[in-house]
């Protein structure tokens, strides 16, 4: 499962389209702001009662989000034992060097700028899917407590 944290409807549609175009069939859960993303991950708020032990294989995280910024979401993900090792790819239109530095400082696994052109965006999503969903190895919950 992929958690897509994206407030821009056009970018959400493009991302979902690019995933389908590249035969990435994982379920995608969309959170439209930072608070909703954390509620989903931790089974709180609107997602109270959700089995929070079921975690995404990857989080695609925009930085410019309402209610709680992507950097704040990343900070909370890395601060919690249950989610600190989840792969987080910052997928954003920001070209600010400060955002890149802050993202990596807070534990982002990757920082990808959203290309404007759909063909380039689709290729970027294909590459992300290939690496993060097929090739990347993540620790099991038992190994993460070492």
From TrEMBL:
<dbReference type="Pfam" id="PF00072">
    <property type="entry name" value="Response_reg"/>
</dbReference>
<feature type="modified residue" description="4-aspartylphosphate">
    <location>
        <position position="62"/>
    </location>
</feature>
<dbReference type="InterPro" id="IPR001789">
    <property type="entry name" value="Sig_transdc_resp-reg_receiver"/>
</dbReference>
<feature type="domain" description="Response regulatory">
    <location>
        <begin position="1"/>
        <end position="129"/>
    </location>
</feature>
<keyword id="KW-0597">Phosphoprotein</keyword>
<dbReference type="GO" id="GO:0000160">
    <property type="term" value="P:phosphorelay signal transduction system"/>
</dbReference>
<dbReference type="InterPro" id="IPR011006">
    <property type="entry name" value="CheY-like_superfamily"/>
</dbReference>
<protein>
    <submittedName>
        <fullName>Response regulator</fullName>
    </submittedName>
</protein>
<dbReference type="InterPro" id="IPR052893">
    <property type="entry name" value="TCS_response_regulator"/>
</dbReference>
